[in-house]
């Protein structure tokens, strides 16, 4: 099984790499060719929009921006539609392209590759037309080229004069329903990732936002902003790494702030995503990001940024936490377990003060209640300890309470442990400690406990083992992803029954994000 999974991952990675290679074979200009939403326009229209023998010249077009937008939204022929957030790139590339350039001559290999992609676009268009069941998510970064069926594109759709002004170029309409969910698809560790918006009530993928390598995504506490840390190469597939922070409007996914340098951010991940190294203070004023050490990459650092100006306000050694998890409290203090000591850490100095001493036990995972007033500790055997951190002084409420854990199972990781907003129920993912699933890091049983009595109240055995689990904000739905099988499962969180399973969700769906409020 492990060998099969490895083969699938390698094959997909090779396919992704091959596709990226095709997209850059004609890069010979110092200016960047257009790649809108991952769609390489220049493959057929030329690096400078000069046209070729299979696509028209776009440089110097007399079309207005709105007419170009219309063609982009509802193209003729086999040209694929671009998502709204990509339109500005298309227009900018066309307007900046010099006129009078000789038409690009395609080699036999280039022409063959481009035509193959055109054929794929036509097939996909036909398939989508038959389905017509939902809005498609945006094509992958190695998808089909932009090609029109005539040598001189003239688009005159009806109603242009009466149409309202076009939305901001980065705006992406969101209709995710009353249970909005985002799933991060890291695409088997490829250079391009994707954030997929899902409406679980109708079980449809509604939108997709392209991100870059090893992204981390968090929402502001108010739910108004979405912070994205990711990385890109200076020369697409090679060159120097650039670690950056970008800020999006969480409602529209419109880009507000782009590419704030955050050099040396931690990119080390266990597949498919692993530990998260970024977080935000509950008041939304501070951003925290883990970084590699400067002289010794293992001497990790924690950097604090002002969430408005992105200026660095502090940096110190990453706190030594038993499970690498730093929790941020309402008073902008940090919480970290180190060798049985539950430490309170000043966010601007890194200075630690011990709040509570616990009996030494192995640590599997730690987490806070949604109100951030209680701290929980789970060991490998399923013992739970609870500390009231809002009390003065903090006090232990429950110590080493044994949970009912099925034989040959152990508690999973932090991303496999979720709690209802009122803190009344704990959904604990359990991983097998023997047999076929041992060592795979996937949950094949989820048990539900009453956090007042710590009695077992139910369990779920998912059809596909889960790598990530999450709860809807209202606590009525339970979600799971499986990267290998590309599934997103939806369960009734109260009745613990399956509502539906979405398949072919991206390439390797992993982390589940639930927007605040």
Which properties best describe this structure?
single chain; 517 residues; mainly beta; five-stranded antiparallel beta sheet; four-stranded antiparallel beta sheet; globular; disordered N terminus
Task: Furnish the topology, listing elements before pairings.
Elements: H1 2-23, E1 35-36, E2 39-40, H2 42-45, H3 65-73, H4 87-96, H5 108-131, E3 181-185, E4 193-199, E5 204-211, E6 213-219, E7 225-235, E8 238-249, E9 255-261, E10 278-280, E11 286-291, E12 301-306, E13 312-317, E14 327-328, E15 333-338, E16 341-346, E17 352-357, E18 365-368, E19 374-378, E20 383-388, E21 395-402, E22 409-411, E23 417-419, E24 425-432, E25 445-450, E26 456-460, E27 468-471, E28 477-482, E29 487-492, E30 497-502, E31 509-513
Antiparallel strand pairs: 1-2, 3-4, 3-31, 4-5, 6-7, 7-8, 8-9, 10-11, 11-12, 12-13, 14-15, 15-16, 16-17, 18-19, 19-20, 20-21, 22-24, 23-24, 24-25, 25-26, 27-28, 28-29, 29-30
Descriptive account of the structure:
Strands 22, 23, 24, 25 and 26 form a 5-stranded antiparallel beta sheet that branches. The protein has a 4-stranded antiparallel beta sheet with strand order 5-4-3-31, with no helix packed on it. It has a 4-stranded antiparallel beta sheet with strand order 6-7-8-9, with no helix packed on it. The chain is globular and about 75 Å long. The model is unreliable at 1-32, 35-39, 83-87 and 125-172 (pLDDT under 50). It has 517 residues and is mostly beta strands. The chain starts with a helix and ends with a strand. The chain contains 5 helices and 31 strands.
